[in-house]
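Quick illustration for those who missed Monday's session on complexes.
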Amino acid sequence: MDLGIKGKWALVCGASKGLGYGCAQALSAEGVNLVIVARGQSDLNDAAERLKAQAPSGTEVLTVAADITSEKGRSAALSVAGGPGTAFDIVVTNAGGPPPGDFRAWDRDAWVKALDANMLTPIELIKATVDGMAQRGFGRIINITSGAVKSPIDILGLSNGARSGLTGFIAGVSRSSVAAQGVTINNLLPGAFDTDRLKATFEGAAQKTGKPIETLMDGRRQGIPAKRFGNPQEFGALCAFLCSAHAGYITGQNVLIDGGAYPGTY
Ligand code: NAP
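Prediction with NAP bound:
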């Protein structure tokens, strides 16, 4: 299926690895020009080389090594030389998730950091790009949130709280006047995906419990109806479809991609 977005410009955050890279991969395979952001320059350069190698010729992949949760980082991402400035057609918001822990140990600074990364950063990126999209009559914004928005996990309280705040904001803004101007805004909610972040979580659990990492990973897989972790490519494919010309009537949605892990009917 031709997704009808060849030649558009996308800003993809947290894109040197994992889910963000999966999104960048699927978009660039469609001929979407990319500005990809991550903090580590070397991984970002490697990612850009791989993306260029698989994209149709003429597709651009520009890099910005920056912390997207900082004002300076966002400003660098939004004004990249050779790119479209704030004239992005597609924006994928994404950054690392907050650490696990006990809410009794989190002070105001811990909460402000989580809110900055997982709620206020996507809101700032939307603020900078959505009106331009609406004026041009086409826009797609995807926020990578978490399955924990629907099924909160107690030790991930910082994530549950910050991402739920973002989810409430998106429910409103996606249905504002921009909806009639060709702009869709949706959240993608990953369950367990095979990425460095997931591996790091299991390494931490293995150290804490003394159990082998494979035993812990197998236990988690068995709790998922699909009996496996997702891979970033299938996450990217869904992201690219939601960014496509065919998905213009889907907005304000929270789309789970979790192998059936969420047990509810709705
Ligand atoms: P990952 O494999 O660790 O990749 C994270 C990517 O984001 C890397 O490219 C990283 O590069 C970049 N990044 C992190 N913090 C950044 C920042 N402040 N500014 C710019 N780039 C940043 O993680 P992932 O598994 O893809 O997870 C992506 C998001 O989905 C996270 O918020 C995570 O909590 C959420 N999530 C993941 C899963 C899962 O199973 N994987 C499940 C639910 C939710 P640098 O470190 O070089 O910046």
